Amino acid sequence: MKPEAQALKGHLDTLLLASLEAGPRHGYAVREALRAASRERFDLPTGTIYPALRRLEAAGLVKGTWSEAGGRRRRTYQLTHAGRRRLAGDRAAWRDFASVVTAILEPAP
Amino acid sequence: MSRALIDDYLAGLYGRLPADLADEAAGGLAEAFERQLAAGSAEAAAAKAALAEFGDLDVVVAEYTRQAPGRRAARLLLATGPVAGSCWAAALIVSRAWTWPVPPAVRLGFGALLLLAVLALTVAATSRRDYRRTRLAAAASPVILALDAAAAAGVLLAAPALTWLLAMAMAVSLSRIALIAWTLPRLALR
To answer: Are residue B111 and residue B53 in the same domain, yes or no?
Structure first.
């Protein structure tokens, strides 16, 4: 695994929650959204997105429902209230962390 | 030839995961394959690219196994086991439980069932790549529930006096029964 993918793994839950913020998506669309939003830098194996979504569902952060479209059954996920709260908390924590690291790496002149 | 690659992978998914999980993953793989075809790849190249994008079967199954409800339930029960066990041990020793009117066959049966259930939970809790092993938790948790209930009933039927240690052990068992009753419906589903 590339170092970037390893670092990404620690933030996967937050990124998955963020990709569902705009509205419900199925697993493949979540993967595509992550890839597009990261300008193709984050290209996770699609097969690992599905178990991660199930984990978030078991934790009550997203809710999945089966639907049928074009002869194919798909499971669509949407954020729950708890998921939105978690995302807001993660986002605030990340901004805080990132601003500290930036302050250290790029001190003001 | 190329479809065979995809079909092998799908057979692996359905053979190693519950149908509900395999259905979802299989849909994702089919979508990846179709997109590759739509982008103009030949069938063989499209299958290869779709599989590479999807990830190794062992890795995908291991991810599902890691977060399997059975594995987590088994870990929870095993973690609370020593607490319940030591509460009961202390209570039974102080109450001199060996003098209680409980037939030897019942004592032996209780011990053997407990041992088997703990063994099954250990197998479920330690599974890393085999999802089916985590489903042992669905079989073992009702046994633990029944043993907890039997122990509490045994105290009411056979104990000459209810000490506070016995009452505490029963309370621990009752909370475990509640915990199992709460997790069991989700385990039964997969």
So the answer is: no
Do B72 and B55 lie in one domain? The reply is no
Q: Which residues in chain B touch residue A46, judged by CB atoms under 8 angstroms apart?
A: 28-29, 32, 53-55
Residues of chain B positioned with their CB less than 8 A from the CB of A54: 21, 64, 67
- DSSP E strands, B60-163: none
Tell which B residues from 2 to 31 touch A, by Cβ distance under 8 Å: 21, 23-25, 27-31
Give residue A5's pLDDT: 67
Does residue B15 carry a pLDDT above 60? yes
The letter for the amino acid at B43 is E
Q: Over 60: is that where the pLDDT of B16 sits?
A: yes
**Å from B124 to nearest chain A CA?**
17
pTM to 2 decimals? Answer: 0.84
User: pLDDT class for B175, splitting at 50, 70, 90?
Assistant: very high
| Closest C-alpha to B181, from B150, B155, B144, B156 | B144
Does residue B100 sit in the same domain as residue B180? yes
Residue B168 domain boundaries: 68-189
Q: Measured in whole angstroms, how far is the alpha carbon of residue B24 from the centre of its chain?
A: 21
